[in-house]
Design goal:
- There is one protein chain.
- This protein has 297 residues and is of the alpha/beta class.
- Helix 3 packs across helix 4.
Amino acid sequence: MTKKTLLLAGFISILLTGCLLAFFSMDTSNHNITSFLFSSVSCSDSSIVRNEDGKTTIRNVTRETVIYTIMPLNWDGETEKRAIKPDEVHEFPRGVIMEITFQRVGRDITYKISAGKAYSFRYNENELLELYEGSHGKKDVVDLAPYVPTPLSVVDKMLEMADLDEDDVLYDIGCGDGRIVINAAKKYRAQGVGIDINPWRIRESKENAKAAGVENLVKFIHKDALKVDISKATVVTLYLLPESNELLRPILEYRLNPGVLVVSHNYSIPGWEEKELDFVTVLDEEGNEHYIYLYKR
C-alpha cells in the first residue's frame, strides 16, 4: 500500500469518526428523528414551486383545520402529529416516501405518499374529507382541482357533443396528460391548446402528442389557467370542481366569444343554467357513471 493511499485512508477514518461522534452527541431532549426528517415549512405566507425542487407538499383546500400524523414508510419510531389550517401548505424533504393517517367520520384513513409529489386535503362528492394526489403547492396560484384523468369513453363523448371539425380550436383547462386535446386532433383534426400548472403534466402531454403524431396541431402551456388568454377558443373543455367552475365562470363570460361551446365533465357551471344545451350520463370502462354538461356562451 502506497504512502498516499495510507494517508487517504487515515483521513477518511478520521472524518467518519468525527461524524459519528457528532451524531451521537446530539441533544435529543427536545427533538427526535421523526421531527428531523419532517422539519416541514408552513407556507401560508410564501410561494412554493412543488415538484420542480423534488419536495413533497400537502395543501389544505377544505374549510377546516385537518389533524394528521405522518412518518417515513415502515418507520418503527414515533409518528409526528400535525395540524394544517385551511389554505396552508406543508412541505417535506425530497426523496422520503411517507405514510400519512387522518380521521374521516371517526375512522383512521392511511395512505402511502410518494416522494416529490403534491397532495391536497379536499372534500369528496359526499362532502367527506379525502386526500388527493395531483394538486400543486404554489401559494400564489388558485388550486382548481386535483389531477384525475378523464376516462377515454368520456373523452370521446365530450368531443362528440362539441361537434368538432378541423376549423375548431379547443382549449382544455387543466389538461393533465393531454388526452382531450390529443384525441380532438387525432379524430377531428382540430387544433388544441392544453393548459396546466404542473410542469410534469405539460412534459407528459408533449410526449403523448408526439407519440400520437399530432404535435403540429396542438400546444401545451405551463401557466395558471386563470391568467391564460382563451379568446381564440371555439370549444373549451373542463374537468374541475364546482367551486372552480364558479370561479372560472366570469372569465369564460368575459374572454369567450358568443357561441363558443363549453363542455364540463361531472360538474355543472353554477349560474349557467340558462346556457345549458345538453346533459348526458356516460359509463366508463369500469361501469362508473359520469356526467357531461354542454353549454353555449
